[in-house]
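Q: What does the predicted 3D structure of SDR family oxidoreductase look like?
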Amino acid sequence: MKKVAIVTGAASGIGKGVAEAYTNEGYQVVLADVDEGRGQAVASRLENSVFVKTDVRAEEDIITLMAHSAEHFGRIDVLVNVAGISVFKDVLELTLEEWDNVINTNLRSAFLCSREAAKVMKANGGGAIINIASTRATMSEPDSEAYASSKGGILGLTHALAASLAKYRVTVNAISPGWIETVDYESLRPEDHAQHFSGRVGTPDDIARACLYLSHPDNNFVNGTELVIDGGMTRKMMYEE
């Protein structure tokens, strides 16, 4: 029986790249996103995939997503929590509604998706959960309070889930991407690439390959940790001339 991966936020960007990678590895993939048009378009190009319209802020949508996946494919082996939004706004002007929307989309959804997927994984005998955090979990620019808090919360959620789900043979890890260009890579400037030890800005494929690594059964000794994928950018000292 083919393995099954669920990817949230799969209609575009990193989520789309992750969904494509698992399809190429022979997985049956469930694409979840609130954008039905783009999500259906991605699913139509990928073999062995289905799209399930999902608002990850809604618990009932997540429960339906996991139930549909289990019924359609019979199992869930991998969950990649990618769905996320950002609001960069003067903290003195940030509304509670905007704060809650970011937290519920980025952090609460990761908990709810993990909880529901783990119920199926337990019955399967195990699985892997990967949460997409961010280097902004540990470093910030002004006016990023909601986003940074949500991503920092994901790191805490990750090691807590790893502890709780170990008895079910479910590994839980986080990936913290740095600068990953998802729209127009060709428009980047030489100085953009030069900010990285690796000499380039990242792509969704860089994150997708890491997901494949973390979810491979041979790598189940990697558990409860954060994998930073940023081309070395957060380790590079910057001085203004």
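A (community wiki): The structure tokens above were generated from the sequence. The chain has a mean pLDDT of 96. The beta strands are 4-8, 28-33, 49-53, 78-81, 127-132, 170-177, 226-229.
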